[in-house]
TrEMBL record:
It is found in: Endoplasmic reticulum membrane. It is a multi-pass membrane protein. The keyword Ligase does not apply. The keyword Lipid metabolism applies. Keywords: Endoplasmic reticulum, Lipid biosynthesis, Lipid metabolism, Membrane, Steroid biosynthesis, Steroid metabolism, Sterol biosynthesis, Sterol metabolism, Transmembrane, Transmembrane helix. Signal peptide: none annotated. It comes from the Eukaryota. This is Ergosterol biosynthesis protein. GO terms for biological process: sterol biosynthetic process. The chain crosses the membrane at residues 20-37, 115-135. GO terms for cellular component: endoplasmic reticulum membrane. PANTHER family: ERGOSTEROL BIOSYNTHETIC PROTEIN 28 HOMOLOG (PTHR15451:SF19), ERGOSTEROL BIOSYNTHETIC PROTEIN 28-RELATED (PTHR15451).
Length: 143
């Protein structure tokens, strides 16, 4: 197992598959779940993303956004532990494309998102994950 510098109790929780991609997916899933929880506690981070028109960020919007984010986290977590499942792998990859399209269109088309700290993370993570998963698709699916 790659992460031998971590405590055994933590290593046991990591996806058992070879390669770093499954651990990346698990990590991003945890980050997304945390982001999802914060949308139910405060509007601050959501307003940071959609800062060009913060008046549109309501509790309803934040809760909907958090639920969508948690669904994405669940899909990515399942894929982290089952990267050889073609349908799940493709669904996970699609979740990154949807995130990229959502954040990109809110920024470039609708103009509700502002380029800054709140937007850079989702754009970088979705882009890197799309590229990485596309490049590794054959390896994990045995194609």
């Amino acid at each position: 197992m790659a992460a031998t510098y971590l405590p055994d109790s933590l290593v046991a929780l990591l996806p058992p598959q070879t390669g770093i991609l499954p651990s990346w997916l698990a990590f991003i899933s945890l980050v997304a779940a945390g982001n999802s929880l914060q949308t139910f506690a405060t509007l601050k981070a959501t307003k940071e993303i959609f800062g060009n028109d913060p008046a549109q960020v309501t509790w309803l919007h934040s809760h909907t956004f958090g639920t969508w984010t948690f669904l994405s986290a669940a899909i990515r977590a399942y894929c982290a532990y089952n990267p050889g499942n073609k349908e799940l792998y493709d669904l996970c990859l699609l979740s990154y494309w949807l995130a990229f399209a959502h954040f990109g269109s809110e920024w470039l088309y609708f103009g509700t998102a502002k380029f800054g700290r709140g937007l850079i993370g989702p754009l970088v993570v979705s882009t890197a994950s799309i590229v990485w998963m596309t490049m590794q698709r054959g390896y994990y699916l045995g194609l």
